[in-house]
Design goal:
This protein is an alpha+beta fold. It has one domain. About 30% of the residues lie in helices and about 30% in strands. Strands 1-5-4-3-2 form a 5-stranded antiparallel sheet. A hairpin with a 3-residue loop joins strand 2 and strand 3. The chain starts with a helix and ends in a 17-residue tail after the last strand.
């Protein structure tokens, strides 16, 4: 699941920065709002192109989730959200093996 979410987020990271400005704030504000409003905490983290940090926040109680991207300047943008989050602990498949 972590790899799937990371690849999804990486695809979304390429969105136009000007369009993302409506869904952005300082990282501290974003994390606080996700915790207070939705009970979401960080579940995954990864590094994307141009030193952007991609994180998935989720509530294990309600199943809501949010993918964020934090830019090198500390601004965090919401890029996707949804429901039915499940944390999986699957072993990686060898290269070339189909699922």
């Amino acid at each position: 699941m972590t790899r799937i979410l990371t690849w999804t987020a990486l695809a979304l990271v390429t969105a136009n920065a000007a369009e993302a400005q409506n869904n952005c704030a300082s990282r501290d504000v974003v994390i606080e709002r996700l915790a207070e409003r939705f009970g979401e905490t960080r579940q995954t983290i990864g590094l994307a192109q141009e030193s952007r940090v991609v994180e998935t926040f989720a509530s294990l109680e309600t199943g809501t989730w949010t993918i964020t991207v934090t830019l090198p300047n500390g601004v965090t943008c919401l890029v996707a959200s949804g429901t039915s989050f499940e944390g999986l602990d699957e072993a990686p498949r060898p290269a070339g093996e189909q699922s």
